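To close the chapter, one final illustration. This time we ask the reader to focus less on the individual chains and more on the assembly as a whole: which components sit near each other, and how the overall shape emerges from the parts.
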Amino acid sequence: MKKATVFLPNKARIPKQKRGIETKEKIVKSATKLFTEKGYHQTNAQQIAAGAEVAKGTFYSYFNNKKEVFAEIIECIFRNVSEKVLLNFELKTYKNPADTYKEAKNLAQLIINQMLSEYKVNHKLLKQILAMALLDKEIEKIRRTEEKKIINLLILYMQTYKEHIRISDFEAAALILLKFTEEMLHQVKFGSTGIEKERLIRETEDIALRYLLPNP
Amino acid sequence: MKKATVFLPNKARIPKQKRGIETKEKIVKSATKLFTEKGYHQTNAQQIAAGAEVAKGTFYSYFNNKKEVFAEIIECIFRNVSEKVLLNFELKTYKNPADTYKEAKNLAQLIINQMLSEYKVNHKLLKQILAMALLDKEIEKIRRTEEKKIINLLILYMQTYKEHIRISDFEAAALILLKFTEEMLHQVKFGSTGIEKERLIRETEDIALRYLLPNP
Amino acid sequence: MKKATVFLPNKARIPKQKRGIETKEKIVKSATKLFTEKGYHQTNAQQIAAGAEVAKGTFYSYFNNKKEVFAEIIECIFRNVSEKVLLNFELKTYKNPADTYKEAKNLAQLIINQMLSEYKVNHKLLKQILAMALLDKEIEKIRRTEEKKIINLLILYMQTYKEHIRISDFEAAALILLKFTEEMLHQVKFGSTGIEKERLIRETEDIALRYLLPNP
Amino acid sequence: MKKATVFLPNKARIPKQKRGIETKEKIVKSATKLFTEKGYHQTNAQQIAAGAEVAKGTFYSYFNNKKEVFAEIIECIFRNVSEKVLLNFELKTYKNPADTYKEAKNLAQLIINQMLSEYKVNHKLLKQILAMALLDKEIEKIRRTEEKKIINLLILYMQTYKEHIRISDFEAAALILLKFTEEMLHQVKFGSTGIEKERLIRETEDIALRYLLPNP
DNA sequence: GATGAATGAGCATTCATTCAT
DNA sequence: GATGAATGAATGCTCATTCAT
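The assembled structure is written out below.
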């Protein structure tokens, strides 16, 4: 086993002109389509380039490698979700500053529904993303960074309504709620259990609210 | 991807003699080690064979391809978990046929703990397994088959203690409980959140029991 | 600039069986032919494999890369030269232990001629070798290792006949004599100056002997 | 290799205006820097252009290809050396027309020293140049053309002092002296033998003078 | 049964060069 | 004149799988 040190040039072009931006978008679009249809490992740079109607070399002038497009795609997806959820939360708390039990319940319901609905991504692509987040450190990091934002939001929510919240370990609770809701989302998305979507969502809400809020 | 095979010859040898069984075990052991250390995609047949101190050809006479060893490994792991949990459940219900509220709680706690402790598999290998279950239909099927057993067990548990259980949709509840517990297990295993194991387990128990059982 | 550490597997096969040895020889032969005809940089692994009538993969199972074949070829050539010169020197000094001035002269003449004649390698390949020894550290090292043997031989010669040698810095002298003789050899081989081979060899002998030995 | 061009369009621009000349100089400077630091083969047009702070297209409007810049660089270096040596020789023979033995010796010493000191080029770049002169016909030709000038100078020197020179084959002697001095220069420059520069230069002078001049 | 030499399609990546803007 | 986006042939290398010994 020899050990060699190599310099990775990081020569990815950052397009400034309209044409370049369009080309990059075409590549991302083609990559998303192929990753969704065939999976990440079954897709190669040649196919992505062909799908975007550009040459292989053009792909490599915008991205250093296949993983980089994937990272860009999922960063965009995750960010979109966390931004939407955050925005919605801010709107609601601004409009309804009063913190009654009923409001706490409504807001919790809202956040859960928000998360469940925001993953607009195709379920096949979602599988690829989840798998890659397990297999690849960099992708895992991107996922965790975006998840941290939602966790912070959940902690903020619990602090806002702390008088109506029965649990005390906000940090652990936020993580658990996020992971649990995500997992339920995946079950709903992948729907391979024969149990209908609605039943799962209803139980998800039940379990989360019962955990968060004391008995009325 | 490399080769689109229409006819699957399935020429894998099923060893009957002691020597053959030992060879197969050596191959499985080597594969497990490599999948854990380097990951599934980073491991090739040559390395598995070398690790088992057999020739590449020998590997291919016991397994049709790399995925087959992986399937065998995870089938063994999942089966082990479901068998242990099942066995334990049966022992407890046999010994304690009375179904008081307290017993229901104790047993629920037991099942959760059982599941949390039974995944003895290395966390790196677990990541590989979860990723593969997302990426590959066959692996997904194996996982689901074994999970179905635990779900049935949970449904049985709920039926046994139905008078003390507050939820009514046993099927959905069992799936949710399993998935939730699994997810928590992964958080505990991967431990990348900075939250201690004990806090996570405590909250997991809390959330599950509160969901299952009515307020005392 | 990112920095990455990569493990180079060094998976080159060392053939033990007759068939493997023959295959390796075929590859080396094909590589030598192509490096000579087209030059090192103009030759690729595919062509070497084709020339040896084996698959590309076979080439890569015997050599990690193109440079490795090249290194093997030149190591063989250099070693051959130094071994022949050394052998001849030992034979002569064994047969003629007396160290008169005349013998010193004869032996010097012999060594020069030996070196001049031993580079049996084609002049085009020699150019490739010299260029690579300038461009590549590893090839340079191989060259220097083999040259050191001849330098040691020349130092030994000077020590043996030290009473008849006019110079005192044996180490520098040996290096200079070697490099000078090599350079003359290249001029003779490359013959691009229009000066005949014989004139160059005559002058080479003259300059070397006049440097080494005092005036009679 | 990449493209077999039959028609050489030679569309390289010859800059007349100040700005164009400056741009060309920037390109040459950048190329020299990169060839020295990374080597000829490891440098590409993009990097040269980037180093000169011009676009890739600009590079190709001044030079038809990478080799052309290299040729320009080495032509400049070699010409510089031969011009300096020639100039110095003319100055000395003009100032000291008398041709005594002592003067012959002094002048020889001077020429050797001149050559040894004039290769101001970085040793890494020198390696690249020597290698390219071995690998490429055009570069070889440039080198030979410039060397011919020094050889002619040496022949002129020998003719001027022919009464004090012991050798008769001026042409062969001039070539040998040049090649020998060059080779010694490289040994001094590359200095990979552990022998100090001064010892090598002293021996070089000794060997050359002893070859040229009879015993006093 | 075991071996390991051989295969060759397949993939990631590079880069000299062109040309529309 | 300058630019830099685009090209695509070419290359080094891998590895699942076969099969003669």
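Chain D is about 75% helix and 0% strand. The mean pLDDT of chain D is 84. With these observations in hand, you are ready for the problems at the end of the chapter.
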